[in-house]
Amino acid sequence: MGSNGTSTGGRRKTAVETLRAMLADPDKFIACPGVYDGFTARIALQEGADCLYMTGAGTTMSRLGMADMGIATLNDMLSNASMIANLDPSVPLIADADTGYGGPIMAGRTTTAYIRAGIAGLHLEDQIATKRCGHLNGKQLVSTAEYASRIKAAVLAREQSGGDIVIIARTDALQGFGYDEAIKRLKVAVAEGADAAFLEGVNTREEAERACKDLAPTPCLFNNVPGGVSPDFGVEECKDIGYRIAIFPCLAFEVVYPAVRKAMQQLNTIGNVKSVEKDGRRYGPRELFAVCGLDDMIEFDAQAGGTAYTDA
After folding, report:
1. What range does the domain containing 41 cover?
2. Do 271 and 233 have their domain in common?
3. Which of 68, 107, 123, 297 has its CA 20 to 30 A from that of 201?
4. Range name among 115-119, 230-234, 277-281 with the lowest pLDDT average
């Protein structure tokens, strides 16, 4: 491969090829900021993120205004993930695919749809269809056999699609069924063809280290959810533990919540909105639009002979 991210033949690498190259590099740690819409994805891209994560919880809250309780459908998740993945197709997107949204046929359909949308990776879990956020109590799981069929269906769909996607197997068995059962499920998923393992809800660093060792050489993913059941491992600690990937699904909506709430309170109390930053700086529309490609759009229009935006 050339240093510019293209193959020796001049073809630009696909997002999934880039993600697989990251996973194959023993010195590369993949830190994925959680984004839930086009604006937060654009901000992450502007700041140089080399891999994104589309959070299912954030998608459910932003698109449906509802909590992450198995409400979002394949269409909800796919349309959001497709839009984010194609803002910059050179940057891989890993997207939540929940339970696959049904039996093996639906898990396969979900995988194929994600591949055709340009999504580089997805994770499938072993909760029942009426699932909930992995850091809430009372989760119910399907049998190991049914979970294995979801993973197998995803692998078969990948093989038949003519494309590729990184399949990440997630289990929520740790909290209700214990460590041994959770690891057994992940090993079954890897045997079916999953590329990486996602043990949800680890409780301690020691448990995390044990899981990474027990699942080696399969790359393991850590889910950083502040206030959830797991410790708040940062990138350096994840590396030390043995993880290869970390997702930070709450990154965007966690910081948006207090900022927007403060602005709403200001409007209600003083009748105007002041800056949430200490220096009092406000952001005008042109700067905000620029994050979402305004200058590139104007340049494209001019190159195509358009004149509508020359004075924008």
Report:
1. 15-250
2. no
3. 107
4. 277-281
Name the domain boundary from 235, 250, 265.
250
List Cβ neighbours of 102 (8 Å cut-off, separation of 6 or more): 129
* Ramachandran sector of residue 277 (left: φ over 0; alpha: ψ -120 to 50; beta: rest): beta
Q: Could you say which of 227, 250, 273 is where a domain stops? A: 250
Residue 10 is assigned to a structural domain of this protein: no
Using CA atoms, how far apart are residues 186 and 167, in angstroms rounded to an integer?
A: 12
Residues 95 and 26 in one domain: yes
Please tell me whether residues 47 and 141 are part of one structural domain. yes
Query: Are residues 160 and 188 both part of a single domain?
Result: yes
Same domain flag for 244 and 266: no
- Output the pLDDT for position 138: 58
User: Would you name the residues annotated as active-site residues?
Assistant: 53, 68, 96, 98, 123, 125, 133, 170, 200, 223
pLDDT band with cut points at 50, 70 and 90 for residue 9: low
Q: How confident is the model at residue 1 (pLDDT cuts 50, 70, 90)?
A: very low
120 — pLDDT class (breaks 50, 70, 90): very high
CA dist 297 and 308 (Å) reads: 11
Cα–Cα separations (whole angstroms), residue 192 to 64, 182, 186, 213, 219: 34, 16, 10, 20, 15
pTM of the model: 0.92
Angle at CA of residue 64, ends 32 and 277, nearest 5°: 55
Domains held by the chain: number:
2
Same domain, 146 and 27: yes
pLDDT band at 274 (very low <50, low <70, confident <90, very high): confident
Would you state the pLDDT for residue 136?
54
Q: CA triplet 193, 194, 197: central angle to 5 degrees?
A: 145
